[in-house]
Amino acid sequence: MEPIQRFFWWIEERHRIFLSKEAGLPRGEWTDDEILKTYRFTNPFRENDKTTVWFRENMREPLKDSPEVLMATVIFRWFNLIETGKTLLSNNLHIDWKPEVARQEIKKQLKYITGGYIIKTPDGMDKVDGVIWCIDKFWKQRDNLINELKDSSLHRSWHVLMQFPYQGPFMAYELITDLRHTYLLNEARDIYTWANAGPGAMRGLNRIHGRELKYKSRKHDWNEEMFQLLGKSSQYLHRDFPKLEMRDIEHSLCEFDKYERVRNGEGAPRGRYP
User: Fold this and answer.
1) Annotated domain spans of the chain
2) Is the pTM of this model over 0.90?
3) Cα–Cα distance for residue pair 79/57, rounded to 1 Å
């Protein structure tokens, strides 16, 4: 199987696992692929991930047509943990941000921040205080930020968000991915033409194109290669498969890289089924 075929096969097979889980099938019937049977990979569609489903149902969807959705998204994603989301929701902190209340209530939890990715905050502060400090910067500029983002493109909005302290490319992209489903960016002109290629997606593209895995030239047009993959998706996916966006290509490339790492004996993901 050619790398590009295997990439789209991975998308279909991982989505089939999601559908099998939703249907309540036993794990032994999810897939015949030994790697997918053994290791955990995130869904091709971020909207189907557990944390995003909770956030969508409890915060984003109820507020999707309100300016309050901006800060609800910022506040939740800085913690990105359902338990903390419940604390924010029960204290109305996702729409009425009060730093001292947030500090007091969140620190009661045993765990309060995602372990899925690194969240950078100011030196000399514990993690909760650091995250609260970062959220405060957004809160004070929320009205200006809404005006900046409304009806903008995803790419431009990503750059706007990165102007805030400790808001790097990955975190900014996570926010944009959520806001794309709200009144702020649901008509962005580049939903099908732009995505932020992270390190994992770059490695996935390198695998598909037969390059060295460490190849990371800033001058390289990663976006164009993802766009080309999106354009070819109809050739490889079944006709009734859900429509992909650029975000889905970027996200799946990262997970595909992890899959190939196992297949080629280069390593293994942390997540493993018991």
Assistant:
1) 3-41+192-262, 48-179
2) yes
3) 17
